[in-house]
Specification:
Number of strands: 5
Strand content: 5-15%
Mean pLDDT: 85
Shape: globular
Helix content: 55-70%
Distance between the termini: 83 Å
Strand order of the largest sheet: 2-1-3-5-4
Number of helices: 22
Oligomer: single chain
Low-confidence stretches: none
């Protein structure tokens, strides 16, 4: 029994160590961090009755509905937001199990496996997905399961058995119902089969994709509506910008820049490191095996699809979470590239990549609990009948989740109706009369009110909220009692009575 346990530990310690690192980093953020605005949105959607969750996911979130439905079921146990975050952590741990299975097919060194799995975990895309109340972790989980089945069964000379094909078809359908952009991964699978295994295997694969394709057709209007939300605010990029965009996407899945965008020398250093790794790959191309070429084709095909979307619509329509299905294929390609050099260089490269991922983790860990501070300030300084106005209005549902005070919160220029959809271009201040009507209604509640403004958010997604109109209106009609800045939130108190 003792020998069996030792053998088990020796075989699985890379997985155990990497999961432990994931747990430590993720639980730190799950417990410490305030809610993010998208998380608050997920809680609003999943807090509805089950029969209304899917409708709200389509109308307000403008996203595939599966994650929100699972989250709604999960929150029947507890409505606490920390408990909601744990669901994402579970999805990421399951992803780690599948990734471990994929890697052990090719790798025998436990030292290398441990470092590579830690590299995956320490990348901010992984930890962010693990503690965020969004569909990110579920997208990664389904993507790696699909990749695992594809590599094990579809790339073989023989056709997969019917049971495997049915399972793959069901999972592919669930992938579309989790995040629409996983369709690029499914397309890459098919075209790679066509290139490597010929038309017959490709034809069978297309038959397996009937249900996912049917779901995409049914949801076509929802998908185009989501894209239209952002395309009204943006335009496509040129060829060079397109190339820079996709290279940055690939780089960010190896070394994340989420919290260090402004450090240009650091990004250039990482680009230089990754370019060197790619040159090693090209130099040793003849040594590349069939599975490696398949991963290379998958990454290239997905990159082309993403580039076309960027070329047509611009980067606002392609946010970081849209391309998560590309995350592990990029890292798996990196694995095969690193394996082309001698072992001591493999370990050195992995160690270096882990080190250059750490600044983002450290920066994010040091961020203060802004919304908690804001709540404390409001509750310590407010009195009864002092309404709290929030601008932009979208931030009301975020601040309200942490607010423990006694007064009503009101969005400016109006409280958002979630049943009318996510229409950011309709939430700007239209004119002074609109503000006058809003403030006049609440003058009857009391003589003073608070204003909370999200700083640096006046041009969200290149869209002007016209915050200047708000300040001009308040200056001309009300008296400023005090103002203070709390980590990106401007808090002011006004006398409601006219000067």
């Amino acid at each position: 029994m003792e020998k069996c346990n030792l053998r088990y530990l020796k075989e699985y310690y890379p997985l155990l160590i990497s999961v432990l690192v994931l747990l430590i980093v993720s639980l730190f953020h799950i417990i410490k961090d305030d809610l993010l605005i998208d998380e608050a949105s997920s809680l609003l959607t999943s807090g509805l009755q089950l029969d209304k969750v899917i409708h709200r996911a389509f109308v307000w979130e403008e996203q595939a509905p599966l994650y929100y439905f699972i989250l709604a079921l999960w929150r029947l146990i507890s409505t606490n937001y920390i408990f909601a975050r744990i669901l994402s952590l579970i999805f990421m741990i399951l992803s780690m199990l599948v990734i471990f299975r994929i890697l052990t097919k090719y790798e025998k060194s436990n030292i290398f496996l441990t470092l590579f799995l830690i590299l995956f975990v320490i990348n901010f895309n992984s930890t962010y997905a693990a503690f965020n109340i969004r569909y990110y972790a579920l997208t990664i989980l389904i993507s790696v399961i699909l990749l695992h089945i594809y590599l094990d069964h579809y790339l073989n000379k023989e056709l997969p058995v019917l049971k495997t094909r049915l399972l793959f078809s069901v999972l592919a359908t669930l992938a579309i119902l989790t995040q629409y952009f996983t369709g690029f991964l499914l397309l890459a699978f098919g075209l790679t089969l066509l290139i490597q295994n010929g038309f017959r295997k490709f034809l069978y694969y297309c038959m397996d994709m009937i249900w996912p394709l049917a779901v995409l057709i049914v949801l076509y209007s929802i998908i185009t509506k989501q894209i239209d939300t952002y395309t009204v605010l943006n335009s496509g990029g040129g060829f060079l910008m397109c190339l820079k965009f996709i290279l940055f996407k690939i780089e960010s899945y190896i070394v994340s820049f989420h919290e260090i965008f402004e450090i240009n020398w650091y990004k250039y250093m990482v680009s230089f490191i990754i370019l060197g790794i790619l040159l090693i790959c090209l130099r040793n191309y003849k040594k590349i095996q069939k599975d490696v070429k398949a991963i290379l084709y998958i990454v290239l095909i997905m990159s082309v699809c993403i580039s076309i979307i960027y070329f047509k619509l611009g980067d606002i329509s392609l946010l970081s979470y849209h391309t998560l299905a590309l995350f592990f294929p990029v890292l798996l390609l990196l694995y095969f590239v690193i394996k082309l050099v001698r072992f001591k260089f493999q370990i050195a490269i992995l160690g270096l990549l882990i080190l250059v991922n750490l600044p983002t983790q450290v920066n994010y860990a040091l961020k203060s609990k802004t919304i908690t501070q804001l709540n404390s300030f409001l509750t310590e300084n407010e009195k009864m009948d002092e309404p709290v106005f929030i601008f932009p209005s979208e931030y009301k549902h975020l601040i309200q989740f942490h607010y423990t005070g006694i007064n009503e919160m009101i969005g400016i220029p109006y409280n958002i109706d979630y049943e009318k959809g996510y229409r950011i271009n309709q939430w700007a201040i239209r004119d002074i009369d609109q503000l006058d009507s809003l403030f006049t209604i609440y003058e009857q509640q009391g003589m003073e009110s608070f204003l909370v403004v999200k700083e640096n958010n006046y041009f969200n997604f290149n869209f002007d909220y016209h915050v200047d109109s708000l300040y001009i209106f308040l200056k001309n009609n009300y008296r400023l009692e005090f103002d203070t800045l709390l980590e990106g939130y401007l808090v002011q108190k006004y006398s409601i009575s006219s000067n």
